[in-house]
Amino acid sequence: MSPRKAAALGAGETLREHLIATAERMISERGAAGLTVRAIAREAGVADGVLYNHFADKEELLAHALRARVEAVARTLPPLPEPGAATVEANLRVYVEHGLILHNGILPALAGLLAHPEVLARFAALSGGGEDWRGRLAAYLRAERDLGRLAPDARVDAAASMIVGACHEPVLSVLLQGRGTPHRVSADAVDDLVTAVLDGLARR
After folding, report:
1. Cβ atoms within 10 Å, residue 178
2. Is there a single domain that holds both residue 34 and residue 82?
3. In this structure, are residues 139 and 104 in contact, taking their beta carbons and an 8 Å threshold?
């Protein structure tokens, strides 16, 4: 195939960024299963070999595209509450809803990458050690405990694991049962989870 000129780039966008954005859009629309270098190149408007001028292999490109997908979903979410604001119950509800939306948003990408652990490993490495949603949740609970709004012996790391597991469950159900979309978690279920967690943390 003769080299083709890349599709129109966004303002200030490099070809590398264009390729990542193209792969991210394809992942969000159709998932990562069966996504090939040729398909990405055609969508981006470049020759197949151009991708290897900017990435070591397809796995590196997909890892960057997955990171871009997570960041795109995260930008649509409201800010997480700060310790000491509102009530712990209301704040935990926001954290739970945040986690559910985040995981549902990245499901199409994750579903096609379970058989490609090298992509997931590279994706994890791209975080650069930054604090993720789970880390922020645990830090929030520790701060509320320090403020005296939770019991002084509250097992906040275990509580964070409970909440994370509850947010993973709809996604895992889809992956393990082969269904297309996760079941929507009701507001009542979110309230029940928050209540169950606080029953073990609230000051007596």
Report:
1. 8
2. no
3. no
Comparing CA positions, the residue from 167, 174, 63 lying closest to residue 111 is 174
In a domain, 1, yes or no: no
pLDDT tens-digit series, residues 59-79: 899 999 988 988 888 888 888
What is the full DSSP assignment across 151-192? -TT--HHHHHHHHHHHHHHHHHHHHHHT-SSPPPPPHHHHHH
Q: Is the pLDDT score of 6 beyond 50?
A: no
Q: Are residues 42 and 131 in the same domain?
A: no
One domain, residues 109 and 146: yes
Residue 178 structure tokens: 């082969």
Domain of residue 36 covers 15-63
Write down the pTM of the prediction: 0.73
Tokens of 7: 């599709």
